[in-house]
Design goal:
By secondary structure, this protein is of the alpha+beta class. The protein has one domain. Helix content is 35%, strand content 20%. A hairpin with a 5-residue loop joins strand 1 and strand 2. The longest helix has 16 residues. It is extended. The protein starts with a helix and ends with a helix. The model has no long low-confidence stretch (mean pLDDT 83).
Amino acid sequence: RPFSVKEYFHSLFHGDEYFVFVDYEHIIGFTEGWRELQAMNGHGGIYVIPLDLAQVGYKDKMAMIEAIHKHSDT
């Protein structure tokens, strides 16, 4: 959601280009088809974050999973 009139008019011509920080405790994983990321917050609630990773190559998908596992172990 735009925070100012300038951002509002920018979104009219360029679409929504906003990023939202989501505080999470643990990444559960990706759904089948790589359309959503599931994460859990510190209170046990689950976030389902829509993604569009279906066209990402297998090697890059495995790199994302490896990075998540590496971060989870620290």
